[in-house]
Write a structure and sequence with these properties.
The chain is α/β, with parallel strands linked by helices. It is about 45% helix and about 15% strand. It is built from nine helices and seven strands; from the N terminus they run E-H-E-H-E-H-E-H-E-H-H-E-H-H-H-E.
């Protein structure tokens, strides 16, 4: 029987450095807070929310423990630039969380969707993710190994990646590509000590989803697809992301971790 002194379970990332994209708000900000509570030093990117980003840095202990980088993420070059800037701050990179992305909230039938919208969604959601992963994996391979792993990559996808989303084919396609990328990275990198997994949220209460969730008709349709009968809180997505970067997830690689209240099974 475990004694009271040995019965506690902790999710510790002491000594690790994490880069979290889209970290000033929503799921990203919740993930920044949770990684700091677990002991990691955290670098996060933001695009325009400078005031929120600075407040989050101070909340998480200031520049010694947390740092914000303003970075557009619309291309592979942007992603590579962010990793290179992050490396200069704390000298290494152990966890990459690719959380940023856009979801054009207006319905766009495929016959009417503009090439501009398609390319913008792909550039932000997919192309920059490639650049981030490419540069982060190179950094993880080059630096001294800490413990039994070289690093962790967690890509944030979506329920839409697995069952599609009518009138949002650009978003679903970009997030579906992240699912395939996760599986490819795992097959390539697991044997080298780099763990690659994916968290696929359903509907989450964030600024990005607020317009849809505040619309009575849309909100009713959404709730009817979620067996738990509610949308997620951002902390309920940040928790699984953290877990996948800890030793308790030491035999998990290439997994698509569905966090959607059972919605992916409903169709």
């Amino acid at each position: 029987m475990l004694s009271p002194q040995t019965s506690a379970v902790t999710l510790s990332l002491d000594g690790r450095v994490a880069l979290i994209t889209g970290g000033s708000r929503g799921i990203g900000a919740a993930t920044v807070r949770l990684f700091r509570k677990a002991g990691a030093k955290v670098i996060f990117s933001y695009r325009s929310a400078a005031t929120q980003a600075e407040a989050l840095v101070q909340e998480c202990g200031g520049p010694e423990h947390c740092h914000a980088i303003k970075q557009e993420l619309a291309s592979a070059d942007d992603g590579q630039a962010l990793v290179h800037a992050a490396r200069e701050i704390y000298g290494r990179l152990d966890c990459l969380i690719v959380n940023h992305g856009i979801w054009p909230s207006h319905d766009a039938p495929i016959a009417e969707m503009t090439t501009t919208q398609w390319r913008e969604t792909m550039g932000i959601n997919l192309d920059s993710s490639f650049g981030l992963v490419q540069a982060a994996v190179a950094q993880m391979k080059a630096q001294p190994q800490t413990g039994t792993t070289r690093g962790h990559v967690v890509l944030v996808s979506s329920t839409a990646a697995q069952r599609g989303e009518a009138f949002h084919a650009d978003y679903a396609a970009s997030k579906g590509a992240l699912v395939s990328l996760t599986k490819s990275l795992s097959s390539e990198l697991a044997g080298q000590g780099i763990y690659c997994n994916c968290v696929a949220p359903g509907w989450v209460a964030t600024e990005m989803s607020a317009a849809a969730l505040n619309h009575p008709e849309t909100s009713k349709k959404v709730m009817n697809t979620i067996p738990l009968g509610r949308v997620a809180h951002v902390d309920e997505i940040a928790g699984p992301i953290l877990f996948l970067c800890t030793p308790l997830a030491g035999f998990i690689s290439g997994e698509i971790f569905n966090v959607n209240g059972g919605a992916v099974l409903v169709g």
